[in-house]
């Protein structure tokens, strides 16, 4: 028997790489996922295009139209402002949708950054092990010991918060969870036959990590990361409410709600409308994320 015949089949991961497509297909078959996707797409498109095509400047003040009630209340309402205006006469619909735009931008970007940093740390720790694993995991443990919101408040409290700085602070605060999950997964995959076969054929460590292991283990973790988008949007809103988010006059959910709390008795819609948009967005993301996670658990449980 030749030596080549004794080498494990390195084409084995090709079948496993289809797991991502199977998870997506399984999740998309559920009505829960479809409902969440429809709501999310509608809100996403509205946030992108409505402020652009409506011609309404969310920062433009009109004192004569201040505290106009929403259309559905039927009292002193205006078709020009279907969700009413705030204490400075600014349109609540356009402000809420622009706030949603920034919230989605920060939530998506932060999650991608967390996933990228955590995946790289976990990949190197799980593949090389020994001293590299020890150093990287001690750094991970140290980061985990500091609550994300406390770290974000501390850093942003001594600097002027901007969108890039908020993304970086939140992203570099939340990567350890992904690092630990990636590490354990990589350690398991490294022992499989196709990795040993690649080593026998002379593949470098870098090639094995980035062409064999990473494409195999990243998609399932990325699906779970969908739920973190909602979590980061909540953190962004909390920071904005505390005055540590994107600064006015740029409208965000947090600073709109913070301004509106002073008018809860006579103009409750100022604080309520952005809250409604936030709840709808978070619910749609959670519906999709939960469906993907159940599909992932079902497929892996049947393997």
Output the radius of gyration. 24 Å
Globally, the shape reads elongated
**What does the average pLDDT come to?**
86
Topology, number of strands: 0
Portion of residues within helices: over 70%
> CATH H level: which superfamily?
MetI-like
* Overall number of structural domains: 1
Order of helices and strands: HHHHHHHHHHHHHH
Q: What is the compact description of this entry?
A:
The chain has 303 residues and is mainly alpha-helical. The chain is built from 14 helices and no strands. The longest helix is centred in the middle third of the chain and has 37 residues, at 92-128.
List keywords for this structure.
303 residues; mainly alpha; MetI-like fold; elongated
Describe the overall structure.
- This protein is mainly alpha-helical and 303 residues long.
- The protein is 71% helix and 0% strand.
- It has one domain (31-49, 103-301): Orthogonal Bundle (MetI-like fold), CATH 1.10.3720.10.
- It has 14 helices and no strands.
- Helix 3 (19-28) crosses helix 14 and helix 5 (92-128) runs antiparallel to helix 11.
Summarize the helices and strands and which ones pair or pack.
Layout: H1 3-6, H2 13-16, H3 19-28, H4 31-54, H5 92-128, H6 130-144, H7 148-157, H8 163-174, H9 176-189, H10 193-200, H11 205-224, H12 226-241, H13 253-260, H14 269-301
Helix pairs in contact: 3-14, 4-5, 4-14, 5-6, 5-8, 5-9, 5-11, 5-12, 5-14, 6-9, 7-8, 9-11, 12-13, 12-14, 13-14
